[in-house]
Amino acid sequence: MEKVIEENKQGTSLVQEQKEGNTKKLFIESYGCQMNFSDSEIVASILANQGYNTTQNLEEADLVLVNTCSIRDKAEQTVRKRLEQYNAIKKINPSMKVGVLGCMAERLKEKFLDEEKIVDMVVGPDAYKDIPNLLKEVDEGRDAINVILSKEETYGDIQPVRLSSNGVTAFVSITRGCDNMCTFCVVPFTRGRERSRDPQSILEEIQDLWSKGFKEVTLLGQNVDSFLWYGGGLKKDYDKASEMQKATAVDFAQLLDMCATQFPKMRFRFSTSNPQDMHVEVIEVMAKHHNICKYIHLPVQSGSTRILKEMNRQHTREEYIALVDKIYEIIPDISLSQDMISGFPTETEEDHQDTLSLMEHVRYDFGFMFAYSERPGTLAARKMEDDVPEEVKKRRLNEIIDLQQRIALERTQRFVGQTVEVLIEKDSKRSDQHWSGRNSQNTVVVFPKENYKPGDFVNVKISDCTAATLIGEAVGYSEIMQ
């Protein structure tokens, strides 16, 4: 799966503004990718209309939900430990209900409900609107389960409650599911086939965020570049669409252009891109608009064409490099980031060297790098032997990480002496006298506060850097503030 797992956010319990008149308490905790955190906001919105306000105090909760991830074994083990803790509290407060949402719900439904009897409710990623009905089932003494995958559900009609928000940046989901069937990935089985949201509902959600003072939106999907709205339904059924539907269809380049044009004072990012679906039109739209950030998360997973084929990635090493060269040609100052897996089944030393040489060519600014771990239910788990020894995986992973850190420092150093536009997001982690924000290329920038505030776009002259952070001083507001 190609969603970035932000370790510092794992297990965050979410809190929202309290809705007057609501008397029940919801404790909701999220693990995994940003899509899961976004889904938790949808669930909180649905339950706010059922009388629930969020709490960060587990002991007082009437309903405890954990939004889960199946991407790595570590994520699943963490959730299991949390479920044990919930159930210890449930013994003291027997009326408390416990539910599992998301990808683990779909994968381990029988285990949770029947074998281990550790939860009351299991809800898959397409069934969140059914939670009020499932709660009634639990009240009547029955286990409640809905993990049916939908061909239509995009939650386009739900205005998510923004949880744990900095009030400056927000995520807007534009697609659900995935059609790619990479052999290492469980997403198509846990989140279903790919479908896109009505562009009008996306623009309305962004308008609502703008009216609330948000300044940056990340368009989110398992595979944003394959966004295709033709009136509803699955992406794979597009060839059955009518001539009128095809003539009025909206692809990702058009959606991105609409967002940037309608909201010129907002900044836009998107994640995640799949190399096989990224077309030159998207890059040209990025180049055309100042308010589309010059950053692409472009997962490759391996630099070896042979391993890419084993992974069922729909591109070769050569095609990926050609795409990267085209991106740099159109947007020379862009930043790219990667996902990389070391030790995929049958990976040889030569394959590993191909990965290192690809990294040298592409020169990624950031990376998310993991040793391969077999995920139950995937094609790789069913058909391939996990045959690379753990110590070899770890050694190769360390070589990948070391190379990425060296390149990242070189890439960050290019900004020293430049003036960059920064959107202020929050206090710096190290000092409450400094602001922290990101430039267009997604690099963190830290500078003295002076009279600026979160949500301001500021020009910052860069004087120093580490591998991941730029340090400088503000020299005034940027043009977008005019």
TrEMBL record:
The entry's [4Fe-4S] cluster 2-binding residues are C178, C182, C185
Q: Does the keyword S-adenosyl-L-methionine apply?
A: yes
Q: Which residues form the MTTase N-terminal domain?
A: 24-140
| UniProt-listed InterPro entries | Elp3/MiaA/NifB-like_rSAM (IPR006638), Methylthiotransferase (IPR005839), Methylthiotransferase_CS (IPR020612), Methylthiotransferase_N (IPR013848), Methylthiotransferase_N_sf (IPR038135), MiaB_methiolase (IPR006463), rSAM (IPR007197), rSAM_horseshoe (IPR023404)
Catalytic reaction(s) noted: N(6)-dimethylallyladenosine(37) in tRNA + (sulfur carrier)-SH + AH2 + 2 S-adenosyl-L-methionine = 2-methylsulfanyl-N(6)-dimethylallyladenosine(37) in tRNA + (sulfur carrier)-H + 5'-deoxyadenosine + L-methionine + A + S-adenosyl-L-homocysteine + 2 H(+)
- Alphabetized UniProt keyword annotations: 4Fe-4S, Cytoplasm, Iron, Iron-sulfur, Metal-binding, S-adenosyl-L-methionine, Transferase, tRNA processing
Essential cofactor(s): [4Fe-4S] cluster
Q: What class of enzyme is it?
A: transferase
Q: Where in the cell is it found?
A: Cytoplasm
Q: What is its EC number?
A: 2.8.4.3
Determine if Iron is one of this entry's keywords: yes
Residues covered by the TRAM domain: 413-476
Q: How is the cofactor bound?
A: Binds 2 [4Fe-4S] clusters. One cluster is coordinated with 3 cysteines and an exchangeable S-adenosyl-L-methionine.
Q: What sequence ranges are listed for the domain Radical SAM core?
A: 164-410
Quaternary structure (record): Monomer.
> Per its UniProt record, what HAMAP family does this chain match?
tRNA_metthiotr_MiaB (MF_01864)
Question: What's this chain's function?
Answer: Catalyzes the methylthiolation of N6-(dimethylallyl)adenosine (i(6)A), leading to the formation of 2-methylthio-N6-(dimethylallyl)adenosine (ms(2)i(6)A) at position 37 in tRNAs that read codons beginning with uridine.
The name under which this protein is listed is: tRNA-2-methylthio-N(6)-dimethylallyladenosine synthase
Q: Name its species.
A: Flavobacterium okayamense
Q: What is the lineage of its organism?
A: Bacteria, Pseudomonadati, Bacteroidota, Flavobacteriia, Flavobacteriales
